[in-house]
Structure prediction request, 422 residues.
Amino acid sequence: MKNKPKLQNPRGTFDILPPNSYIWKHIQNNLSNIAELFGYSPIATPIIEDSRLFARGVGEVTDIVEKETYTFQDRGGDLLSLRPEGTAPICRSYLQNGMHNLPQPIRLYYNGPFFRYDRPQAGRYRQLHQFGAELIGDSSSTTDVEIIQLAWNILHSLGIKNIKLLINSIGDSNCRANYINHLKKYLTEHINLLSHKECINRLETNPLRILDCKNESCINLTQNAPTSIDFLCEDCQGHWNKTKSLLGDLAIQYNVDTTLVRGLDYYTKTVFEIVPDTEGQQNTLAAGGRYDGLIEQLGGSSTPAVGFAMGIERTIEIMQTQNLLDTPKIAKKLTIAHVGEEASQYAMQLAQSFRQKSIVTIVAPRNRSLKSQLRFANSILSSHVVIIGESEIHNQTLLLRNLNTKEQQELDIKSAINQISK
Ligand SMILES: [Zn+2]
Ligand SMILES: [Zn+2]
Prediction:
C-alpha cells in the first residue's frame, strides 16, 4: 500500500490552537478596546493587493520588496502580492474611498495576518500577525504623541513591564538631503572601516540604513557619525521639540536614539520604537512614526500621517517571559446528559434555553451510556451536568449536578438556571 503524503502547515506558519487561541483572542480584544477608547475605528483591507502598491508604497530598495514579498500572477494574469505590511493598503483605501473628503484627521486601526518570505527562525514567521493604528490628515506633533501614547498604553494594559521608548527625528524633504550628504561624507572618509559588504552597497543606495545595521563593525563606525537631529530645519526642529515636551507632560519617559531611522523617503520627522528594557533583548515590540510623503507617493495630494504597528507573536512571547499569560478558564460550563431517544432530542432544545441565559452549554455525545456521558462532562471540565430522561421530560424537570460540590437536585429549568448562574 502506498503511503499518503503527510499534510502539514507551510514552513514559517503555525496553528493557533485552544486553549492558546483564547489568549490570542483576549489580547486582540484588549488592543481593539484601547484603540476604540482613543477614537480609532476598525478597518480591514484585503490580504491580496496589486503588487504595484508595495513596489511604490514600501519601496523597491528595501528588503521587504526585494526578497520578502510573496508575489504571484493569478489566473487572469494580474500580478498580486500577499500584503507584507498594513500602512500602504490603508493609504490606498483612504484615497480610493475618498476618506480625504471626510473631516480630518481619520483614525483607523487594523489587526490581521501579514506575509513575508523570510527565512524561518526563532520568532520570525512567514505568516505573522500585526496590530496597528494610523492617524491620517494631521501634521501636528500632538498626533505623533497620541500614536506613541496609544502604543504605550496598549503594552501597559497587557501588564508588560520593563519596556522603553526610543525616539528620533529624521527630518523631512527640506533638511534630509543635506543631512545625508554629511553622513555620506563621514562614511566615505571612514570607508576603510566599513567592512560589512551589504553596507558598502548601502552607502550609495540607502546610507541611512547603515545607522541601524546590527553588524558590529557598522555599530562602531556610526558611533561618531553625524546625527539627523543636528541637521533639522526650523519646522522639523519645532516639531521635534514639541514632541519631546508633550511626552514629558504625559510622563512618558523616552531615550533619544539617533540610530533609529527609516530607509524610505516618505518617512518624515518622528520615528519611534518600544523595546524591552533588557540587555541583549532587542526585539522591537512596537514601531512607528510619521510618513507625510506616502499618500502623495500613492497618487494623492500631500497628506500628513502618523502610525505604528506591533507584532502579536512578540507581544505574546514577552508576556510569556514575564509570566503574564494565564489560560483563561471558563468558570461555568454545563453539559447536558440524556438517556433515551426522546431525551436526546429534547437536549437540543433544553441547551438553547441555557444558552439564552449566557450559560456555556454542550450536549453530551449521543449513543453513549450515562456513565460515559458523565465521564465526558468531567473530561471537558464542566462545572455542572444536567441529566434528563423520560420521567424528567414528562414532569418538566431535570437533575442538576454540581461537579465541584457533587450536590444533585431535581429542579425545574428556571431554578436550574438560577442555581448555575449563582
Ligand atoms: Zn552594516
Ligand atoms: Zn526639515
Q: What stands out?
A: Residues 171-172, 174-175, 232-233, 235-236 surround zinc ion (ligand 2) (CB under 6 Å).
